[in-house]
Every structure is written in structure tokens, then in C-alpha cells.
UniProtKB/TrEMBL annotation:
Belongs to the binding-protein-dependent transport system permease family. CysTW subfamily. GO terms for molecular function: phosphate transmembrane transporter activity. Its main location: membrane. GO terms for cellular component: plasma membrane. It is a multi-pass membrane protein. Part of the binding-protein-dependent transport system for phosphate; probably responsible for the translocation of the substrate across the membrane. InterPro entries: MetI-like, MetI-like_sf, Phosphate_PstC, Phosphate_Transport_Permease. It is found in: Cell membrane. It comes from Candidatus Caccosoma faecigallinarum. Residues 86-301 form the ABC transmembrane type-1 domain. This is Phosphate transport system permease protein. It comes from the Bacteria.
Amino acid sequence: MKKVDASSIKKKTIIDQIVKIVFLAITILCASVIIFIVSFILIKGITPFVHRYEIDGQFYSVNFFRFLGGTTWYQYPNLYSIGFIVINTIYVTFLSLLIAVPISVLTALFISKIAPKKIGKFLNTIIEILASIPSIIYGLFGAGVITLLVKDTASLFHYQSAGGVSTLASVLVLAMMIIPTITMLSITAIQSVKDDLIKGSLALGASQTQTNFKLVLTSAKSGIFSGIILGVGRALGEATAVSMVAGNADVGPTFNLFDTTRTLTTTMLQGFQETTGLNYDIRFSVGVVLIVIILGTNIILNIAKKKIGRGVLE
């Protein structure tokens, strides 16, 4: 029997402790950066409500409740309101999910369980490429192609759109952007379903289609929902592409698909021409609201995900 060297054990213990300290330091550093960023945005975001800004010789501060509940982005001297922008953001995100989720899940099912392996691998590569395309490329495609299609569609219904820049164009661009994300995670979830379950279902007389829809998708619900959560996060946080097709309406909310719209992210993006003043600081206030919405949405969706996962296990 080989004798254990005490010095060797001590050396390994020291190495383990060093590794733990290094990982702890990295974790603290990452957490500190996140806390610093959130704190900076929060402090800057609160400033418009407590600081008085000089406008045309008069001093004003933004009314917090009017800011959250107003229907006009800027109306002097009432200043800024984002109530309708919040509604527009949620509306556009919801519609994009209605389009993206069914397409993503069915595409993932086809790639994972229906398509031949070579075709499945090829399509999987395409999905990965689409997921890595920068937002600006989607925005250019939306501005050059989708807006024209929306404009032509609006004319069929005898409705005049602003050159195709509209809610519908924003929804379609967002749907295109989140489809690859949801599809990739759905593929992973579907592929994790055990083959024994599938073989057992087929052995009991179920068809391949019944097995795919009633067993595979049901078993992969939790993973698919994770993809949806990431898709929601990207849809809520996307700014560049949407700003090229939204139109930035100053009043709202609007539920007409052919009207221009304004989201929280596009409002933030198009307001940083200056580096001081109310028009600059108010963008951080919009950012705080966006952070709260994203956190709230993620909490709600994660609770729903746990319930869905529990239901599958039961």
C-alpha cells in the first residue's frame, strides 16, 4: 500500500485554498462592477426628480407620478412622461413573442427529432449564425426591407403609414432577432429528453407525431421556457435595431400596427446627444424603469418556469 506523504497533502490543501480565494476575488469583482453600474444608473435616474433644472429662466424638476403615468413624452412645462412608452414596450415585446415562440419551438423540434442528421446539423449551424448577427444588421434589413413591406401592406388596407416605420415593423424585427435565441435553447432542451421515454411511447402504439408533441415537448417545457425568458430579455433590451424602424412617436399609447411607436430603449438611445442637463439625466430615469421591468418580468417568468417544471415532473 502506497504511503501518503503529509507534505503532499498539505501542499494540495494550500493550492485548494489559493484557488478558492482567487475564485472568490473574481466573484466579488464581478458583483462589485454590477453593483457599481446599477448604483450609478439609479443615482443618475433619481436626479431629475430631486434636482431643479433651469429652463427659459424658470426652475423645474420632473414630477415622478406624471413621469410614470403620462401620455406625452415631452410637454413643456410638464416635462417628460413615459407611461405610454412602457405600454408600447410591453405591447411590442408581447406581439414579437407571439410570432417567435411557435416558430422557434417547431423549428427546434424539426431540427432535433424530424430532420435527417446532416440537415439538422446544417440548420443548427444556420441558427447559431443568426444568433450571432449584430443588431445593426437586423436594423438595416428592417429599415430596407420590412418597412417597405409594411408600407405596401398598409396601402392595401387604405391606411397611410410613415414610410413603413411602425409598430408592426418593430414587432417583426424583434421576432427575427429572438427566434434564434429561443430556438437554440429549445434544441438543447428537446435533445435532453431521454431516448428511453421516446422508445417507450412508440412501443405503446403512439405515432411519431404524437410522441413529439405530447411527450417530447412536454418533457422539454422547462428548457424551452428558459429560452423564452432569454428571448424576452433581449426583446425588452433591444435598442439599435428597433430605433431604425419604430419611428419614436411622441404621444401614445398606440395599438395600431401601422402607427409609429416608441419603446424605452429607443428613447434612451436617441437622447444621448448631450452629456449634461435634464435631457441627458432623464435617460437614466428611463433606464431605471427598464431595469425594474426586466427584473419583474424575469421573476414572474422564473416562477412560472418552476411551476411548469414541477408539473412535468409530477
